[in-house]
Each structure stands twice: as structure tokens, then as C-alpha cells.
Specification:
alpha+beta, coiled coil, cell membrane, 2 domains, transmembrane helix, Bact_OuterMem_StrucFunc, 60s Ribosomal Protein L30, Chain: A, OmpA-like
Length: 321
């Protein structure tokens, strides 16, 4: 019994082998086969969908890759390519630089000539407006009576319409900004006609050199500005668009029309300027300053005792209408 208790216990372990056709090596081979088949079908699809031009380009690249890369060549940019050298004609076997084989026509623009043409066109439009106002004055019995008090001329700033005083026929009440009834009628007729052109307008009021100063400090400067603003209101009352007004100034007696006689009633006037594009841009430009016509600027400088500024060639004396 004691010997049976000391008998060793033997445990048999069976070790299974991993070789033979039951191993996992076949999975790696199968994955390689599938990858190769996918690459093959992808290559076939690319070859089938590539145009002949692309094939020729690829062939040229592998023959002389540096030359094609630096200089391009037949087929280097196919018609269906979105890269440089491509085009839109899919029937072509070689690349296109443009959708058409016609030689490119370079367009050049002469800005100076274009600007001169626009200025000439605008000048013709202002001349047509001047003729229309003159015809309206001749056709209207009311305006025809005051024909001698209406001066129209073309200046460097545009069409200038001046309504001047006569000794026995003033436009305003004495030393006031109240317009006479006939002055209102004149401004109503002019205001309606000014809508025929897109140009903006500027108004300036003028007095003669007769000293005027009230106890409150009200002088010819305030009077001329008030008269210009009163004229603006009557132009709008006559039908002119309020947005057309760009500038309203009072110049007192600084710019006399009759320089030989500063007390002449003709110096008391309202000046309406239908501004050309150059004058309008001068007013609208940043850092602008109020400007008057070249003739008025020279006269103002002479009145102040300063040398006259440089100015363009004179446009001729005003035409009395």
C-alpha cells in the first residue's frame, strides 16, 4: 500500500503542429493576389479612360522627361486636361492652349483719348442745353422781356447761366434776399430745363462793391450767400431735382462782372453753373476747397492785391442773352 502511494503520476501533453495546408500563410498570399488584381484593374481602367493625347504625352515624358517637363510638347497638355495647356475640344489628340486656334488679339485702351472723347461728348451736351435755354427764352414772352439780364456762356467749369441786375429792374429787394416775382418766374423756367442733363450744379451769389454792414455784423458776404440759397429754393420749386445741387456759395463783391466799374448794378447777380465732370470731381475730391471759375479766381486775386493764378486759355467773353 505504501508503494502505491509513491507511484509517480505521468501527464501526457499532445503538441499540435502549425504546418501543412492547415496553416495561415495562405492568407498572406491571397491578400497579395487581391492587391495585385486591384492594381491591374485600376491600371486597365486608367488606360481605357485616357485619351490618345494623354497616352502620347505620357510616352513622350518617359522617353525624354526633362525636355517635356521644361518645354512641353505634343500631347503634354491634352485637350481634356485642366492643367496649363489644356482646352475644351475633346476630339483633339493634341493639347490646346485655348479653346480656339485663332491667334489672340491684344486689346489696348488709350485712357487719354477716352477721357478726351467723354469731355467732348459732355461739352456737346452742355452746348445743346445752352441752345435749348436760349430757344426757351425766345419762345416765352415772359422770359423774353428779361433777355438782356440773362447771360449764358461755356466756361472751364461748364455751362454758366447768370441772372444780373439792371438799374431799374433788380432781382432782389434792396439789401434783402427776397426775390422779385419775375425773378422767381425766371428761376422756375430754368430749374425745369436743368433736369434734361445729369450734371450737378453750383450756385454763387454776388453783390456790387457798395459797402453794406448792419449793426449785427450782417454784410455783403451773408447777403450774397442768402441770395444764392434763395435762388436754390426757387429752382427746386420750378421742378429741379434737389439732389442736383452740389455747391451754394456767397462771394459778395470779390468777383465783379464789370471790373472797370465795381458799383455797376450788373455786378449784382446770381450765377448758376451746370458743372462738367472735371469741376464736379474737384468739389467732391477729399480735402477739397471751394473753387470758382478761372476768370472769377483771377478777378478775386486781383481784388485782393495778389498775383493772378495760372489759368487755362480764355473761353471767350460771355454772350449777352
Amino acid at each position: 500500500m505504501a508503494e502505491e502511494g509513491l507511484r509517480p503520476i505521468i501527464v501526457k501533453r499532445i503538441k499540435k503542429g502549425g504546418g501543412g495546408h492547415h496553416g495561415g500563410a495562405w492568407k498572406i498570399a491571397y491578400a497579395d493576389f487581391v492587391t495585385a488584381m486591384m492594381a491591374f484593374f485600376l491600371l486597365m481602367w486608367l488606360l481605357g479612360s485616357t485619351t490618345k493625347g494623354d497616352l502620347n504625352g505620357i510616352s513622350e515624358y518617359f522617353k525624354t522627361p526633362l525636355k517635356v517637363a521644361m518645354e512641353g510638347g505634343s500631347g503634354s497638355g491634352d485637350s481634356s486636361s485642366i492643367l496649363k495647356g489644356g482646352g475644351k475640344d475633346l476630339t483633339r489628340s493634341e493639347g490646346q492652349v485655348k479653346a480656339s486656334d485663332d491667334p489672340a488679339v491684344k486689346k489696348t485702351f488709350n485712357l487719354t483719348a477716352a477721357k478726351a472723347a467723354l469731355e467732348a461728348e459732355e461739352n456737346q451736351r452742355l452746348k445743346a442745353l445752352k441752345e435749348k435755354i436760349e430757344n426757351k427764352i425766345d419762345a416765352n414772352p415772359l422770359l423774353k422781356k428779361y433777355k438782356e439780364q440773362l447771360l449764358l456762356d461755356i466756361t472751364n467749369d461748364g455751362l454758366r447761366i447768370q441772372i444780373v441786375d439792371e438799374k431799374n429792374r433788380p432781382m432782389f429787394a434792396l439789401a434783402k434776399a427776397d426775390l422779385q416775382p419775375y425773378t422767381k418766374d425766371i428761376l422756375h423756367e430754368i430749374g425745369f430745363v436743368l433736369n434734361d442733363v445729369p450734371n450737378r450744379i453750383g450756385l454763387s451769389g454776388h453783390t456790387d462793391s457798395t459797402p453794406y454792414m448792419s449793426e449785427t455784423g450782417y454784410s455783403n458776404w451773408e447777403l450774397s450767400a442768402d441770395r444764392a440759397n434763395a435762388s436754390r429754393r426757387e429752382l427746386i420749386a420750378g421742378g429741379m431735382n434737389d439732389a442736383k445741387v452740389l455747391r451754394v456759395v456767397g462771394l459778395a463783391s470779390a468777383v465783379n462782372l464789370d471790373k472797370a466799374d465795381p458799383f455797376n448794378p450788373i455786378n449784382r447777380r446770381i450765377s448758376i453753373v451746370v458743372m462738367n465732370k472735371r469741376a464736379e470731381e474737384s468739389v467732391l475730391r477729399d480735402g477739397r476747397q471751394i473753387e470758382v471759375s478761372a476768370e472769377d479766381a483771377a478777378a478775386a486775386a486781383a481784388a485782393a492785391g495778389a498775383p493772378p493764378p495760372a489759368q487755362a486759355a480764355p473761353s471767350g467773353p460771355p454772350v449777352r442773352k
